[in-house]
């Protein structure tokens, strides 16, 4: 969108609050308020939530405290019935949790060969398997990558939470800038707390070591695992087995999961792209507004008769500019991270489904081999029995995690879109009140002038 197309026209009468709230549905936004590109975003959002119309009631809301940091409403926001969602969500949580993790205090390290950031991780727990009730360690990004790979290796058909990407999109923020580091810190905090809240991953031994071991201990533990070439070999063999044999007996529910994820992935990627475009346009609009207001102030110095009106317009633009800045902060802190997290989740889910299919394909290949061989039947039968158990475990793990993931996803999306709606409502009301106050002052001044002209 071109910046000049968004410059407000102060004298125009803005619509009523109801019209402002409905701008996303196709109505024109009030003067001084950006409103383009909202329609596609809301349409895509509706389609994401419509994927599960049968589960539209509030019972699907999860009790996941790890979401509190990124989904809580701003104290400055007006309290509406929709804000009660958070009360349902976090009501009894403190009594249910026994592991609390905080990621904070980013610290820059510069060596002869690299520059990197470490983060302090503070863990408090009442679990008996921990030797102490509190730990403090420092970890860098590659340590988080190691943990994620170990969790995927130990639980191939569980849904491992996503990590923020190592590299960022060019033009968004600079690497190692304060904004980038803070965004990553929040994402890493969320990653660890999602693992802590997972009924299986939370008891993983590598996760415990990650939280408690000192740097040298963690480095020593890493060296005990299989080497890179060994892991690559296992992956290549698994993929080759899947490609050769295919999946002949995939249960229908996993086919439905795959279809669901293809649709979900398409919709969430559209939402993510549009939201980033909106944020970019909002930033451009904000920069234009910062230049637009002062021009009226400068002009007033040479136009004595309309000086008060020009100063009033400048004041209104300044207030709208500050409101726009607050809304930009809401987008960058609440909407954008959630949408992109679920873009990454969609990739993870597709990977989990492929790994389940690989296990299934391995079983199918053994069954075919047994049918074609008359000898060694006992050996093949034993291998098939083990593979059947492996497939059953993989299926059960994925089914349970799938239900949990969908519940959390629906909760996150509803909370996020409700947050955005309240933020937008507050924004439009603030801008509307600003311009209405200006119009009222101009009407009073006009009447005073008319009265003075009527007097003899």
Main features:
single chain; 456 residues; mainly alpha; 13 helices; 3 strands; elongated
Secondary-structure element sequence? HHHHHEEEHHHHHHHH
**Can you summarize the main beta sheet?**
3 strands, antiparallel
Overall residue-averaged pLDDT value: 78
Terminus-to-terminus distance? 54 Å
Class by alpha and beta content: mainly alpha
Number of helices: 13
Number of strands: 3
What's the topology here?
Blueprint: H1 17-21, H2 38-49, H3 68-71, H4 84-90, H5 93-96, E1 99-110, E2 115-125, E3 134-140, H6 141-154, H7 178-197, H8 205-212, H9 215-223, H10 228-245, H11 252-300, H12 307-372, H13 377-454
Antiparallel strand pairs: 1-2, 2-3
How would you sum up this structure, described in words?
With 456 residues, this protein is mostly helical. Helices cover 64% and strands 7% of the residues. Strands 1-2-3 form a three-stranded antiparallel β-sheet. The longest helix has 78 residues. The chain is elongated and about 105 Å long. The protein starts with 16 loop residues before the first helix and ends with a helix.
């Amino acid at each position: 969108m071109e910046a000049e197309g968004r410059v407000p026209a102060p004298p125009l009468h803005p619509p009523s609050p109801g019209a402002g709230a409905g701008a996303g549905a196709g109505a024109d936004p009030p003067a001084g308020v950006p409103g383009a590109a909202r329609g596609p975003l809301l349409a895509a959002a509706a389609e994401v939530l419509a994927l599960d119309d049968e589960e539209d009631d509030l019972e699907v809301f999860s009790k996941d405290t790890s979401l509190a940091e990124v989904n809580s409403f701003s104290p400055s926001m007006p309290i509406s019935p929709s804000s009660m969602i958070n009360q349902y969500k976090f009501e009894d949580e403190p009594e249910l949790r026994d592991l609390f993790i905080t990621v904070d205090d980013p610290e820059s390290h510069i060596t002869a060969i690299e520059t990197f950031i470490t983060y302090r991780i503070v863990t408090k727990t009442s679990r008996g398997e921990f030797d102490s009730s509190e730990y403090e360690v420092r970890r860098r990004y590659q340590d988080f990558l190691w943990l994620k790979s170990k969790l995927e290796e130990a639980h191939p058909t569980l849904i491992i939470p996503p990590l923020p990407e190592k590299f960022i999109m060019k033009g968004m923020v600079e690497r190692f800038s304060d904004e980038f580091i803070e965004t990553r810190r929040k994402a890493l905090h969320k990653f660890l707390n999602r693992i802590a809240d997972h009924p299986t991953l939370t008891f993983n031994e590598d996760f415990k070591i990650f939280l408690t071991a000192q740097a040298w201990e963690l480095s020593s533990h890493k060296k005990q695992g299989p080497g890179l070439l060994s892991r690559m070999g296992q992956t290549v063999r698994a993929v080759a087995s899947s490609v050769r044999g295919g999946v002949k007996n995939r249960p229908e529910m996993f086919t439905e999961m795959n279809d669901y994820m293809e649709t979900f992935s398409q919709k969430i990627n559209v939402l993510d792209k549009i939201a980033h475009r909106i944020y970019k346009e909002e930033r451009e609009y904000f920069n234009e507004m910062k230049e637009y207001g002062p021009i009226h102030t400068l002009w007033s110095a040479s136009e004595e008769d309309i000086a008060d009106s020009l100063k009033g317009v400048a004041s209104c633009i300044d207030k709208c500019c500050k409101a726009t800045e607050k809304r930009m902060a809401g987008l960058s802190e609440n909407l954008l991270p959630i949408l992109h997290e679920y873009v990454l989740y969609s990739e993870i889910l597709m990977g989990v489904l492929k790994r389940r299919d690989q296990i299934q394909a391995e079983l199918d290949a053994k069954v075919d081999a047994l049918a074609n061989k008359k000898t060694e039947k006992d050996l093949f039968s034993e291998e098939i029995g083990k593979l059947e158990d492996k497939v059953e475990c993989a299926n059960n793990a994925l089914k349970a995690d799938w239900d949990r993931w969908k519940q959390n996803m629906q909760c996150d999306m509803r909370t996020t879109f409700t947050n955005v709606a309240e933020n937008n409502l507050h924004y439009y009301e603030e801008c509307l009140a600003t311009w209405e106050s200006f119009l009222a002052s101009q009407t009073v001044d006009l009447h005073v002038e008319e009265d003075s002209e009527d007097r003899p």
